Each structure stands twice: as structure tokens, then as C-alpha cells.
Fold:
Amino acid sequence: MTPRTASLLLVLLALPLSAVAAGPPGDYGEGQRLYGEVCFSCHGNRGDGRGPNWKSTRPRPPAFTSPLMKRMTDDYLFAVTKFGKLNLLKERTGGFKLRGAKPAAMPGPADSIEDGQIRALLRWVRGFPAGKQPDDPTSREIYQAACAECHGKAGRGDGETALGGQPPGWPFVSRIQPPPADLTSREQMARFGGRYLFWLVKLGRIGAAEEKGYDYMEPFGHILKDAQIWSLVRYVREAFIEGKPRGR
Structure:
């Protein structure tokens, strides 16, 4: 365990998971209406991440219908909608805090590994969905040293910082938000193009957005009231993440 992981785990273990167990407040019907006005263009009418703008978005929008979304907290959904992803990751939220979790951006290793090593590492990681990585001990060593603490030793997004002391297994609520990607999921990995992954590893999530122009969730707090955002969260949680849409 790295010192960074150990210090983060001490913070995470002190956060109450009970705070994220209850369902979100808000009005389902209003959330459904607002979703059709504000969210569908990226996330799709069915919450599958395939709205009209999905092909022009880099990386592709997440699918709310994925079982992996159950690792995401309602507080994170609220905050990323209100403040935008970069502001949330930089904790520029006017004092708003996630309950039971901490915002965490994927860091870049900067100059610790060379570009050729990053490309080799990505070829190795791309083998996770099929369970067939290239025979590359160097990439395996880099992954275990730099990536496994969040993404897990087997790439399932269940590393120590994500579990935060919870017993391993399915399902769990990630103690860092957004939850680390499950690298074994074809659905999740299909969202990420090769160039994006290269810059993500080299610069980190914030650097990839600010220096290379990759997309991120913009803030909507200037056009939506908090109660409206909570209604959106409730609709997304019930209709897509829990798979229990009303009136169908």
C-alpha cells in the first residue's frame, strides 16, 4: 500500500456509509421532464449514454443503465450536475461535501513513465475484458504499482481506495467518486478511445480536460435550482440505475 493510499483510506474509513443508503429527495415526474430537456442529448432517452451528441463526446457519456452505476452515490450525481465535474474534482463546491465518499480525479504519473511505456500499459489493460493480456511483465508491474489501488488487482474497479474498508464483493458503493472504471467491462471500456486513454494516463483526468480539451460534465447549477437537480437525481436513480421506471 502506498502512503497516498494509506492516508486516503484513513479519511474514507471515517465517512459514514449509512448516509448514502437512503434514496434521493425530489419529484420523479419533474425529474423525468427535466431529463428530457437537459440530459437526453448526451445520456439518451433510455439512459444508455447514446443521445444525439454521444458520438461527438470524448469520452463517450456513461450509461446510467450499467450495473456499475450502483457504485455511484446520489450526492455525487447531485454535485456533478450542480457544479460540473472539474469543479467537483477540484473541490470548488462552495462548501458542499459528499457524504460517505470523497471526490477523486485520476492522477497522471507525469514523468514517472515514458510514452512508450504508457502505450504498452494500455495494450495490456485493453486485454482485461477478454482476460488475455500480452505477456508484458513491465506493464503488469506498472499497473500493480500505479493503478491497482483504485482499479483493483484484477481491474474490476474494486481497489483499496474504492472499497475503503468494505468487504470485497458485489455490489458496493465506492468510497471515491466517481467510481474507478471497471477495466474488465466491455461496455465501460468502449467509452474510451485510444488517444483519450493515453492522455488520461499521462496527464490525469483534469489535465486531459484542461490541456487537451477532452469533454467533461458542465455545471448546470446556474440554470437549475437545487430541488430540480435532486428531482433529476431521483429520476436517474429510479428509472435507469435501479431499472424501475414508472408508468411503463
Remarks:
- Confidence is low (pLDDT under 50) at residues 8-15.
- The chain has one domain: 3-241.
- The chain is about 45% helix and 0% strand.
